[in-house]
Specification:
- The complex is a heterodimer.
- Chain A has one domain (13-96): Rossmann fold (3-Layer(aba) Sandwich).
- Chain A has a three-stranded parallel β-sheet with strand order 2-3-4, with helices on both faces.
- Chain A starts with a strand and ends with a helix.
- Chain A has helices spanning 12-22, 36-49, 67-73, 86-99; strands at 2-4, 26-31, 56-61, 78-80.
- Chain A is globular and about 30 Å long.
- In chain A, helix 1 packs across helix 2 (36-49).
- Chain A has four helices and four strands, in the order E-H-E-H-E-H-E-H.
- The radius of gyration of chain B is 22 Å and the shape is globular.
- In chain B, helix 1 (15-23) crosses helix 2.
- In chain B, strands 5-3-6-2-7-8-9 form a seven-stranded parallel β-sheet, sandwiched between helices.
- Chain B has three domains: 13-54, no CATH class; 56-260, P-loop containing nucleotide triphosphate hydrolases (Rossmann fold, 3-Layer(aba) Sandwich), CATH 3.40.50; 271-326, no CATH class.
- Chain B is of the alpha/beta class.
- Chain B starts with a strand and ends in a 9-residue tail after the last helix.
- Classes of the chains: A alpha/beta, B alpha/beta.
- The A-B interface holds A 1-7, 10-11, 13-15, 17-30, 50-52, 54-55, 93, 97-98, 100 and B 1-7, 9-10, 27-28, 30-32, 34-35, 97, 103-107, 109-110, 113, 116-117, 122-125, 127.
- Bound molecules: guanosine-5'-triphosphate and magnesium ion (MG).
- Magnesium ion is lined by residues 71-72, 108, 157 of chain B.
Chain lengths: 100, 327
């Protein structure tokens, strides 16, 4: 598995553009600023607009429990809250790659 | 943090449609075609065959130099400068895959992220994992994709390890060798052979001082080749210093190649390499375990090991009858 690290403070447009050029299977978003409710769904929306809705989107960072169902409804496949064991995250991406 | 698996996780699109979209400038298609090449999928052969006639427009520039010398930083700045001159720019950055886990964190993109959503820029990182036909072949097939996408220049960054410099120099139109001054008591050393391959030399990190010795050294040692004396450009990539001069030098070298007919010569040299590499790859596939010729291959290996046959005679048996004369 290869991970392409794009750096901090990327706009949703930057992220989607990088995902398309690198032809990734999944995007992992991390947000600590509290703007996840707008930023994460925006990434999903832009992907669909670019006919790339098949790219899986996962989120993480400081996300209140009550936001998780809303994010999932907006197309975020999975949300990892603070303290999620690394093992669980790795396992998710490994199986996601095979199943998708 | 986008992640890419080395296997065909998602269904692949049919190649003809992807190539049609590529030729219309579709970046999504370009990304997918490069994945086919990177993963060494069977469809890659058809893809390259369809793309090849539509290439030859882009000027290909290879960057080489020791780890951490500032290749990615320079490319990032150069992309912006070239965009300012209305040139479309593709970048292929080759990163070493970890030999331990088979995975890789491809970080070159961080220092190249400045150009974000500019439609005239396409940046792709490639891992070095398992390429039957050699890494350079796959890398330059990816360059073909960006050429066909309509990029005016394609910049290739590779790790300056092993033979990769020479591999780049024989394939790119222009080769940029990046070095940096040593600080303190460290003795300035340059890799053997590095003075023969560059068309442009960059001394980066001049902001740290001590550049004069390195520049003088280079100037003293560099000689003209085919009527071209490689310029030495001082840069500080983090401040954006010297980047205009670097862009100018590359434009001058591109014009020089056209005026002298050297461009054509370089293209033919690259074609020779690529034909041989493809032949080697075809042979390797032919004798893969399981096939009839694979069993013959195994038998020959045993015969060579037990001294009933010599390796050269065995190799000749693999070639078509017309070329089996001893050599
Ligand atoms: N002081 C100074 N630092 C620089 C300059 N250019 C790059 N750097 C720093 O040098 C480090 C390596 O830069 P990169 O651009 O990643 O170098 P690279 O040659 O691409 O490295 P690899 O891809 O790992 O081989 C980074 O920390 C840069 O910020 C420069 O002109 N001056
Ligand atoms: Mg780099």
């Amino acid at each position: 598995m290869e991970v392409i690290y794009t750096g901090l403070r990327q706009t949703p447009e930057d992220i989607v553009e990088a995902a398309i050029q690198e032809d990734v299977d999944a995007i992992g978003l991390s947000c600590l600023s509290g703007a996840h409710m707008t930023l994460f769904p925006e990434v999903v929306k832009l992907l669909k607009k670019r006919k790339s809705g098949d790219i899986l989107v996962a989120g993480g960072g400081i996300i209140p429990e009550e936001d998780i169902p809303k994010l999932k409804k907006a197309g975020i496949k999975v949300v990892f809250g603070p303290g999620t064991p690394l093992r669980e995250i790795v396992a998710f991406f490994e199986t996601a790659g095979e199943g998708a | 943090m986008p992640a890419r698996k080395g296997t065909a996780a998602r269904p692949r699109d049919p190649v003809p449609g992807l190539v049609d979209s590529l030729l219309k400038g579709d970046k999504r298609a370009a990304g997918k075609l490069i994945s086919l090449i990177e993963d060494d999928e069977p469809e890659a052969t058809e893809a390259v065959a369809r793309i090849h006639p539509h290439t030859g427009r882009a000027h290909v520039v290879g960057f080489t130099g020791p780890p951490g010398v500032g290749k990615s930083s320079l490319i990032n700045r150069l992309v912006r400068t070239l965009r300012g001159r209305e040139r479309k720019v593709g970048v292929v950055a080759v990163d070493p895959t970890s030999p331990y886990t088979g995975g890789a964190v491809l970080g070159d993109r961080i220092r190249m992220a400045d150009t974000g959503v500019d439609p005239g820029v396409f940046i792709r990182s490639m891992a070095t994992r398992g390429h039957a036909g050699g890494l350079a072949l796959a890398t330059f097939d990816a360059v073909r994709v960006l050429d066909a996408l309509g990029m005016d220049l394609v910049l290739v960054e590779t790790v300056g390890a092993g033979q990769s410099e020479v591999e780049i120099a024989t394939r790119a139109h222009s080769t940029v060798v990046v070095e940096m001054p040593m600080t303190g008591d460290a003795v300035q050393t340059m890799k053997a052979g590095i003075l023969e391959i560059g068309d442009v030399y960059v001394v980066n990190k001049v902001d740290l001082g001590n550049a004069d010795v390195l520049v003088a050294n280079l100037k003293f040692q560099l000689e003209a080749r085919d009527g071209w004396t490689p310029p030495i450009i001082r840069t500080a990539a983090i401040e954006g210093r010297g980047i205009d001069e670097l862009a100018d030098a590359l434009m001058r070298h591109a014009a020089f190649l056209d005026e002298t007919g050297l461009r054509k010569k370089r293209e033919i040299a690259r074609a020779r390499l690529e034909i041989l590499e493809n032949a080697q790859r075809l042979l390797a596939r032919e004798v893969e375990a399981g096939s009839a010729s694979g069993r013959d291959f195994e038998r020959m290996a045993e015969d060579v090991a037990s001294r009933r046959l010599d390796p050269n005679a065995a190799a000749r048996k693999l070639l078509p009858t017309s070329s089996r004369k001893s050599s």
